[in-house]
Each structure stands twice: as C-alpha cells, then as structure tokens.
Design brief:
CATH architecture of the largest domain: Orthogonal Bundle
Largest sheet: 3 strands, antiparallel
CATH class of the largest domain: Mainly Alpha
Strand content: 5-15%
Strand order of the largest sheet: 2-1-3
Helix content: 40-55%
Shape: globular
Number of strands: 5
C-alpha cells in the first residue's frame, strides 16, 4: 500500500520518474486500410479504439505495459517494459501513474509541469488531466505473442467454422470472433464459468449441445460453433445489427435490449457514450472494437505477422515422433492441407523418418 505522507509522495514521484524514463514512445506504423464488409460498420467514433486494439494485438508484446485512458483507450500515455507481467506489477504501475497524473492535473496552469516531459509525445496536458478522473488509468499488457498463437490455432478450425456459419445463414466474418474470446483455444475456461473456443456459459449452450457432469461439448469445436451460431442468430434478430448483436455476445442479449430501449437508440456509439449499467464496463464497451481489430489483423496477417505466412511453403524433414496431427498443431495448418500439399492419400497415417514434407499455410 502506498504511504500518503509528503515525504513518501515525493519518493513515489521519483520512483515513477524512473519508470517513465524507461517508457518508449510508440513508433509510426503503416497499416492496411480499415475496411469491413457490409453489416460490420466502423463508426468514425470507434476508429481510434480499433487502431488501439490492433496495436495491442500486433505491436506490443507480453513484456510491455501500455498505460492509457480507460474512457478513451486510444490515448496512450506511456509504454513500459515489464519485469514479470503479473497482476501485482500491473497494479503497481497503475497506482504510480495515477499519482503522477494527479500531480500534473493539480499543477498551476501558468507553470509548465516538469512531468509533462515524461509522457509519450505529443503531449496533451488536457488529456493527461482528464485521465485523473476516478479509475481512468488502465494498464494493458501487449498481446502480440498471444495473437500470433491464435492465428496459428485458427488455421485448424476456420474452414469448419465457416461451413457451420454458412449452414446457419451467418456472415463468414463472424468466424474470427474466437480471436477475441479464447485465442481459438478449445479448452479455454474463464473464472466466470465460460468454456471453450466460443466461451459459452452452460445455460447458453444447453439448448443446442450437451453440457452435464459427464460431457461438456463446449470443448468440441464444431458442436460449440453450432451453439455460438444459434446465440448470434438470436442476438441479431433481437437487436437488428451486428455491432449491437456482437456487443450482446459479451453483455447479454437481454441487457443489451434493455439498454437500447432505455436510450431509445439502436446505435452502439450511443450505448458507449450514454449507457450506465452495473455490468457495463470496459470489456463491453470495447468488445466490438476488439472484434473489428481482430478481423483486420486476421485478414492482413502478412502485414503484421509475416513470419506466419508461407507463400512458397516450408520444408519439414520428418523426425522420430512426428505425426500429421503434431505437424498440424506445430505449423497451424489443417491436416488436409498437409495431405494435399504432399499428395498423401486419406489413408496415410504413418510418416517415414527423413521424409520431406512441404508445409503451406
């Protein structure tokens, strides 16, 4: 716990000065244009939020902490190196920046605050002062490594997901949603009880698939996709557009419908600006922006993760213990793709030591 005495506060400020001097500015990064298919609009007011999440997914690593304004995520105040990256370190950084921002916000307007030089340029004193509000400072670890693994995993499932969505009459763009929900981890479990690639709650999944003490089909990718498709269909029917329907995937259909009715509007930007609910927090407000960011990165993988794209294929020499299943997991490509690239029959299960296989993503 931070001590509040004047002496300890001065010490704290100098500790934070050391932290801030270790912050690195965000370098310029040219990206593909943000373009989305019909139905998945990008409101102008969300464009900067989407870019923030693109940066979190692609520029910042797990070893970096992005300090930003919770109400305006795109206002990045600093990027710091992490020593451990656990919750305790993130909380310490948050508390430190809250203290420094209070110092800046309360400084006389006619005296340039020396702390302004410690934030990422360009410095906007009003933005820093605004971040002094209640619980406005937020610390977000980078996710580049996590998203790279998610892309590799997704290659095993996207074809099956798209087929399931086609049968359900849903847009193929929705197939990228697990990037946000679970990083395409079929065994993912949340503290709230959500399970599987689609992070389904038991009550949500049971009308479509089996969830009981013996079998939990939420961990079965194809069956879980059918349950997710059913929920997304209900959300779209209830709310009429995909920005709200996807928000309902996180916030709940009933809660989103109530919020829309209370405001008398059917626009997500209105909800973000004006809705005030007990569970209407940062995750809900940013869920659609995160989804659009994930779609953009997934469809422009070569721009952000060139190391994951194999335009001409790569050669793998079979070693002891290698199987098609292991190679599929290692390289993030479907088994059928490996079979087709190497003219392997559907009955082929055994690989020969020293056999050379071409892996194409």
């Amino acid at each position: 716990m931070w001590c509040s005495s004047p002496r300890s506060r001065r010490s704290l400020v100098w500790v934070v000065v050391g932290l801030l001097l270790g912050a690195r500015p965000a370098d310029a990064h040219e990206t593909a244009r943000l373009e989305y298919p019909d139905g998945f609009e990008l409101p102008a007011s969300l464009a900067f939020r989407v870019q923030f999440w693109i940066d979190v997914f692609t520029r910042y690593s797990l070893r970096e902490a992005v300090v930003h304004d919770r109400a305006h995520p795109e206002r990045v105040l600093a990027v710091l190196p992490l020593k451990v990256g656990d919750s305790a370190e993130l909380a310490e950084i948050k508390a430190s920046y809250e203290e420094v921002i209070r110092e800046v916000a309360t400084a006389p307007t006619f005296t340039p605050s020396p702390f302004l030089n410690l934030f990422l340029p360009p410095v906007d004193p009003s933005a820093i002062a605004a971040a002094a509000g209640v619980d406005r400072v937020r610390v977000q670890p980078g996710q580049r490594e996590v998203f790279a693994k998610s892309i590799l995993r997704s290659r095993r499932y996207l074809d099956a997901i798209r087929r399931e969505f086609e049968r359900a009459g849903l847009p193929q763009t929705l197939a990228y949603l697990p990037h946000v929900e679970s990083s395409f981890d079929s065994e993912a479990r949340s503290s709230a009880g959500a399970v599987g690639m689609w992070q389904l709650m038991a009550d949500t999944a049971r009308p479509v698939i089996r969830v009981d003490d013996e079998v939990d089909e939420r961990t079965y990718p194809v069956k879980a996709t059918a349950a997710a498709a059913a929920y997304l269909t209900r959300a779209y029917v209830a709310l009429g557009n995909w920005p709200l329907a996807l928000t309902a995937y996180n916030y709940g259909i009933a809660g989103t419908v109530r919020a829309v009715q209370a405001l008398g509007a059917d626009d997500l930007t209105d909800l973000i600006a004006h809705h005030d609910g007990v569970n209407w927090g940062f995750a809900c407000k940013n869920f659609y922006a995160q989804f659009l960011a994930a779609v953009h990165v997934a469809e422009n993988t070569g721009d952000y993760f060139p190391e994951l794209v194999y335009p001409n294929g790569i050669e793998h020499v079979v070693r002891k213990g290698d199987t098609l299943w292991h190679l599929s997991r290692r390289y993030g490509v479907p088994i059928e793709s490996i079979r087709e690239s190497n003219a392997l029959s559907g009955a082929t299960t055994q690989l020969r030591l020293g056999q050379r296989l071409m892996i194409r993503g």
